[in-house]
Design a protein that fits this description.
Layout lengths: L2 E3 L5 E2 L2 E5 H10 L7 E5 L4 E11 L2 E11 L5 E8 L5 H12 L3 E6 L10 H18 L6 E2 L3 E2 H7 L4 E5 L7 H7 L10 E7 L7 H9 L3 E4 L7 H15 L9 E4 L2
Parallel strand pairs: 1-4, 7-8, 7-12, 8-9, 8-10, 11-12, 11-13
Antiparallel strand pairs: 2-3, 3-6, 4-5, 5-6, 6-14
Length: about 260
């Protein structure tokens, strides 16, 4: 079933009105018609199964026939990804959204080869996140924060934070995760901030500054990972260790 994120105000009681890009896709790309069913999400963690009753240019409407809650990862992984050249940053956004990352912060590092993104690029990145969320069955959209400098990121980060390093790191990711169980009190979400460097890696001064801000250096094994794959590997390992990659029944199934 095709899935579409829409603004919450598009859903009123049992009626749904879809406009803009999703409506164009329903009518002109997918060629759906009245009687077809789609899944609609409002970024709250709920998925609504909708039977279309009208499809016209720029608008599609329908009635909710069922509702269910979508389970998001219990561990919030926020990826502080250095800016990358070409489409590499887009690859990071797409694949890390699929695996379960809940937020992205673009970071300008000393060795970054890419410039700060403009408004058009940020909008394109948000569309990539939305499409990856629809495809992968997410119930909430990962948040994309404005780009910041490496020092700003280190100074503002809160909670357990890790920075991936190449060479000279005695502690591996698994050892750190198992020494600091990914559990949260009172049912709150656990959180891990993950820093990944640019094509040339972090500079020694950046690693030193991160340490003074409480960001722990961590190794990702003996292989040298590319800048666009390191975050995906590390995020998947964190979510595996926390149990978030275990299958489970959907939450809250029931008729609307």
């Amino acid at each position: 079933m095709y899935r579409f994120f829409v603004p919450a105000e598009c859903i009123r009681n049992e009626a749904v009105v879809i406009r803009g890009g999703p409506a164009h896709q329903i009518r002109d790309v997918l060629r759906l018609k009245a009687g077809d069913r789609v899944a609609v999400l409002d970024d709250s963690g709920c998925e609504y199964e909708v039977t279309l009753d009208q499809v016209s240019r720029g608008t599609a409407s329908g009635r909710i026939c069922s509702k269910r809650d979508i389970a998001e990862p219990g561990t919030e992984v926020v990826l502080y990804q250095s800016l990358l050249k070409g489409t590499r940053f887009e690859f990071v956004l797409q694949k890390c959204t699929e695996v379960g990352v809940c937020g992205f912060v673009p970071v300008a590092c000393e060795r970054s080869l890419a410039r700060y993104p403009g408004d058009k690029k940020m909008e394109r990145w948000r569309r990539i996140i939305t499409e990856a969320s629809e495809q992968s069955g997410r119930g909430k959209l990962p948040r994309l924060q404005p780009a910041v400098s490496f020092r700003q990121a280190c100074q503002s980060v809160q909670g357990p934070s890790l920075i991936a390093c190449v060479g000279g790191v005695a502690t591996g990711l698994r050892s750190i995760l198992r020494s600091r169980p990914l559990t949260a009190d009172r049912g709150d979400y656990a959180k891990v901030n993950l820093f990944i460097g640019p094509e040339g890696g972090f500079s020694p001064s950046e690693l030193e500054f991160a340490s003074t801000c409480g960001v722990s250096a961590v190794g990702l094994g003996n292989r040298v990972l590319r800048a666009e794959t390191a975050g995906l590997v590390a995020a998947a390992a964190i979510l595996y260790e926390s149990g978030d990659l275990e299958p489970g029944p959907p939450l809250g199934n029931g008729e609307a």
